[in-house]
Amino acid sequence: MEVLGRRGIPVGCRGGGCGVCKVHITAGEYEARKMSKSCVSDEELAQGIVLACRAFPRGEVSLTVVGKMVKTVCAGAPCGSD
Ligand code: FES
Predict the structure, then answer these.
(1) What is the bridge-based pairing of β-strands 22-27 and 62-65?
(2) 41 alpha carbon to ligand 1 midpoint, in Å?
(3) Residues with beta carbon inside 6 Å of ligand 1?
(4) How much distance in Å is there from the Cα of 13 to the middle of ligand 1?
(5) 3 found inside a domain
(6) pTM (global) more than 0.85
(7) Which of 16, 19, 26, 74 has a beta carbon 3.0–4.6 Å from 39's, enabling a disulfide?
(8) Position 49 in a domain
(9) What is the CATH number of the domain that holds 53?
(10) Number of structural domains found in the chain
């Protein structure tokens, strides 16, 4: 989304440390790489909640923004529809 210049998933440190890109992947395959436990707990990880900068889709995925910036990203628009 960043490359496409689209507003969507917030971008911060890009290294799995700040947590602004926290999303809930509700469908689709992905690989999650190492990320800060202070941002995503093991329970959240098991539910598909990840940091977008540390998750790599293996095809189409559906997700919702759940991180610190959710109000900014979703203001005035239906959120959670991908
Ligand atoms: S951009 Fe900071 S954790 Fe993803």
Answers:
(1) antiparallel
(2) 15
(3) 11-14, 16-21, 51, 53
(4) 5
(5) yes
(6) no
(7) 19
(8) yes
(9) 3.10.20.30
(10) 1
pLDDT tens track for 22-81: 999 999 999 999 988 999 999 999 999 999 999 999 999 998 888 766 665 555 554 444
Q: At 23, phi and psi to the nearest 5?
A: -135, 160
Output the CA 67–ligand 1 centroid distance in Å.
Answer: 10
Q: How far apart are CA 22 and CA 10, in angstroms?
A: 8
Q: Using an 8 Å Cβ cutoff, are 66 and 22 in contact?
A: yes
Cα separations in angstroms, 12 against 55, 62, 68: 15, 21, 11
CA–CA separation, 39 and 10 (whole Å): 14
Domain limits for position 1? 1-68
Residue 4 CB partners (closer than 8 Å, separation 6+): none
Q: Is 34 exposed, middle or buried (0-12, 13-18, 19+ CB in 10 A)?
A: exposed
In-domain check, residue 78:
no
